[in-house]
Amino acid sequence: LDMMHQVKITNVRSESHTDILPDEQPGSLGVCGWILFIVSLLLTVATLPVTIFMCVKIVQEYERAVMFRLGRIVDKKPKGPGLFFVLPCTDTFVKVDMRTVSFEIPPQEILTKDSVTASVDGVVYFRVNCPVSSVVSVSNADFATRFLAQTTLRNVLGTKNLAELLSDREGISQSMQESLDEATELWGIKVERVEIKDVKLPQQLQRAMAAEAEATREARAKVIAAEGEMNASRALKEASLVIAESPSALQLRYLQTLNTIAAENNSTIVFPIPIDILQPFLHK
To answer: Domain 101-201 maps to which CATH number in 3.40.50.800, 3.30.450.40, 3.30.479.30, 3.40.50.150?
Structure first.
């Protein structure tokens, strides 16, 4: 039953969207409309060339014009770029900018999944994909997209915990872009990119996280120092075994130490002579 209800809702939305957009089912002007159109055309021709400046309009390369004739959209696509003609009495038009527009999402106080309050802001990049839908389907597509971006930011971040909020910004931006793009498709808006700018946490939470990070670094430093002591003790053990196997190696080590001490002239050092050197003299 739920699936059937959703299908019905989808069909109603699609039918209502079709009724709003006259591109697919253009309506007739009617008898009165055609009379007004013919009268306006005759007056325009009769007052030439004065009315030529009122009839010729220019649309820039990055703009499109959605033209209405007696309240109905003319043709199935917008006018432009370049020159197009309008009748002063019956035709009106709305210019739509097709360039990419960016706006900042004001800082939003959100509550994460693990009950942490944070202030998050972002940037949204969008452009008009269908000029006719952006004029007919919504009163102000720009403001509607801005307000929708704020609510979408709260809804998406409400399902994330603090760790995901700090580490998975790319995933959050992708989720927001998909949600916004799906919602603004009927408005003729294409959301190109969403970026999370800054995440501000309370001061107490920042101090707690800094203390936690410091404790983690100290623990890691102690582990590294302990591993270094263990490796050094193993190296000393292996060196002692090598020296024990060769007495001449011990004598060379003594001589090397004496050479090192001799290079330091600013102090007096008493160095014990190994008993192995005196063994021949003791026998004599």
So the answer is: 3.30.479.30
**Side chain identity at 228, as an amino acid letter?**
G
- State the Cα angle at 71 between 66 and 74, rounded to 5°: 45
Sequence spans of domains, the chain: 2-96, 101-201, 206-283
| Residue spans of alpha helices (H) in 137-202 | 141-157, 162-167, 169-183
Q: Give the helix ranges, DSSP H, for the chain.
A: 2-20, 30-46, 52-55, 131-136, 141-157, 162-167, 169-183, 203-245, 247-262, 275-283
Split at pLDDT 50, 70, 90, the class of 269 is: low
Please tell me whether the overall predicted TM-score, pTM, comes out greater than 0.70 for this model: no
Average pLDDT value over all residues in the chain:
76
Q: What is the side-by-side order of every strand in the sheet holding 101-111?
A: 101-111, 117-128, 189-200
Distance between terminal CA atoms of the chain?
Answer: 115
Q: With contact defined as beta carbons under 8 Å apart, do 146 and 195 qualify? A: no
Residue with tokens 């002591």: 229
